[in-house]
Amino acid sequence: MSYELTDEHKALQATVRDFADTVVAPAAYEYDTKRELPYEIIAQMGDMGLFGLPLPREYGGQGKDYLSLCLAVEELARVDQSIAVTLEAGVGLGVMPLFRSGTEEQKLEWLPRLANGEALAAFGLTEADAGSDAAGTKTTAALENGEWVINGSKQFITNSGTKITRLVTITAVTGESERADGSIKKELSAILVPTPIEGLTVEPAYDKVGWHTSDTHPLTLTNVRVPEENLLGERGRGFANFVETLDEGRIAFAALCTGAAQGCLEESLRYAGSRNVFGRPIGSNQHIAFKLARMQARVYTARLAYYDAVARMMRGEPFKMQASIAKMVGSEAAMDNARDATQIFGGYGFMNENPVARHYRDSKVLELGEGTTEVQLMVISRAIGFPG
């Protein structure tokens, strides 16, 4: 079996790589320091069609496959994880739930604007006591006179507070039922909330260790009212639909991880070949060469893992376990390569203007976001017959 890219995939990959190297990379340190999302770069990404890559043309998309999105995310992540996750979350968590579960009217209203980068969408799942544990959801939505009235709070929501954020999908408890054993089962649904809207407060941005350019906020919803038809998908299947979308999203997230690991490798190869100590390049020392070899092996393995997962997904085969493996392997590769790259650079690797220093700060969240390593292990162990 070969994972050789088609000519069309290679052309897209080359185009995004050039954009990443000539536009994103030169601005990365400045915006990381200012902790600002570079809207002019996001606009260029929109003009390139990156936010609409996996969407059909009738919704303003590019009509490409999901691998195309992954390749674009990987190339951006080499130089700036914040920009890469803005795309990955904007499509994987913002666009895809709407595309997979929305009505035709909802798709026609929202997808064209999201596909061209004019607007960003976010997905509000995580709460203080809820995320992987859906039963912990406390946000509620009650029907009153043809409107959903939403109350609650969300946290760690990517793309939720930008000046072009126009939609947040919220998971909320829309009812309860009693199980046979007397326990209460919560009915969770997903509801489209356009922004800005009365009652939705975007709280101050988090002071994060990394991903400084990425937009991340907590949200507070106080008597937010939206029409009943803003229900996304079937009532009571909000979390189930999101889990299905999350499986896809983990593949794109794994591509982001692979790009981060690749970026650390490229920077280290360059430095190891140009930095001379005791009259020779440091890369000529075996312990440095072996470190680089391990970095290459991690990138190779991570890329194969997400290529396999996305190939299964596009063939319509089960891919849940493979997506979790790709996400786990990729995030560990990124973190390990960031650590090794920083070691190779020595003191220079500790300076924030150095890309490997930013990767070192940024990569830890890759083991946390879109399901922690422990969640991936849970998914994998269940898939091989050990439910825990």
UniProtKB/TrEMBL annotation:
One of its GO terms (molecular function) is flavin adenine dinucleotide binding. It comes from the Bacteria. It holds the Pfam family Acyl-CoA_dh_M. Residues 236-384 form the Acyl-CoA dehydrogenase/oxidase C-terminal domain. Residues 6-118 form the Acyl-CoA dehydrogenase/oxidase N-terminal domain. Keywords: FAD, Flavoprotein, Oxidoreductase. Its cofactor is FAD. Residues 122-224 form the Acyl-CoA oxidase/dehydrogenase middle domain. InterPro entries: Acyl-CoA_DH_CS (IPR006089), Acyl-CoA_Oxase/DH_mid-dom (IPR006091), Acyl-CoA_Oxase/DH_mid-dom_sf (IPR046373), AcylCo_DH-like_C (IPR036250), AcylCo_DH/oxidase_C (IPR009075), AcylCoA_DH/ox_N (IPR013786), AcylCoA_DH/ox_N_sf (IPR037069), AcylCoA_DH/oxidase_NM_dom_sf (IPR009100). PANTHER family: ACYL-COA DEHYDROGENASE, ISOVALERYL-COA DEHYDROGENASE, MITOCHONDRIAL-RELATED. Belongs to the acyl-CoA dehydrogenase family. This is Acyl-CoA dehydrogenase.
